[in-house]
Amino acid sequence: MQGHFTIGMIMAVTLALFSACTTEDPDANRHHTGSEDQQTGAVAVGAERLLNDYFDLIENQRLGIITNHSAVVGEQHIVDLLHEKDDVEVTALFGPEHGIRGTADAGEPVDDDIDEETGIPVYSLYGETRRPTPEMLEDVDVLVFDIQDVGTRFYTYPATMGRAMRSAVEAGIPYLVLDRPNPIGGTRIEGHIRKDEFTSGIGLYPTPVTHGMTVGELALMIHDQGWHDDIEDLDLHVIELNGWNRDMLWDDTGLEWIPPSPNIPDFETAVIYPGTCLFEGTPASEGRGTYEPFLKVGSPHVDAEKVADELNRRSQSPESGTGYDNEEPDRHRESYLSGLNFHPVTFTPESIPGMSREPKLEGEDVHGVRIEVTGYDAVWPVAAGIHILQVFYDLLPEEHKEEFFHPRGMPVRAGNEFVQEMIREGVPADEIIESWNEDVAEFSEMRRPYLLYD
Question: Alpha-carbon distance 385 to 261, whole Å?
């Protein structure tokens, strides 16, 4: 982590990834800061609105910022923009999983550092410490969170955001969440609510796999639901987006894609990630160690042509699910695999510094599919992931089926043990998908008070 947050550094990181996952406030301690006016063109992110409309919240204050390379406004990073101002001082930076620069491997501990250009201390929140300590906040008057999320329970950034709430309460300082769009929109809710026994760093909150919420909305929910102890007195402010609505996907926002982590290099990957990340709970490859992670999945023990043929057959067959829409139940699709094409592929995972240094099945020939997203708004990724998992499992030789699901790795991603058991028992994929309808309905109602956008 060398140097200042310049756009040149951000672009260099991005290129390396490609070439080398208002209403009235009912609570006096919680504030939504937004506008009912809708902009045309690009969505205005929370960081931009902080600078233009809500600067009084940080004026003449010392700031600690939980952030990474994704926190840009136009072509500049939020830290650059704030560091240049005379009437505010950035005194501490905090890095989540993948680090301030976003180049550390998934799960790899991140070290403390110093930003050489500014001299600002950089504290890791993904090592021995997972939230700011009192010592880290000694010179901080306001704690700010600004990181691009991908709307999926597995992603660790919301967990970092939530844990830091306790730190802000203990320090007696306000906590600002600068909102950013959910790349896969605000209507996709899929998967079972995570059961308590499968709480983990990649499943800290009891949500379905996709929740259809922005980080700002999720922050309000974490606070009000008491998903961390002793946060009821938090002085929480969410700086809302302007010009975003729940039907928008990333391509509709007018914003440039900055990979939020090394293995989500583009929007196509973000769309399918919630489904193919389930492969991390198996010995099969989720595509890490290639330049198309999560768009490629495979196993040494299956026939790629058979996998692709079966998935394409299901994607074109009305029998493969009638489709569903959480917000518009009368709108139907032909298949739970709509918007996807499957191409047979053989690949060999290799070490790629900055993306995956020690990928699963490194050096082995892996057979499977390359997933092509042909209709972003038609894809329901978790439903697709269930179909893909089932096809792989069914086409495995019998001697490899017993060990296909990791005993804990799969349940912490699915949120329960019975998804893998239903696949083992041959329950049709559509029935597995429909088994989470009750959870989706429950969560849809639970999240309703925290939705900031139409």
Answer: 21
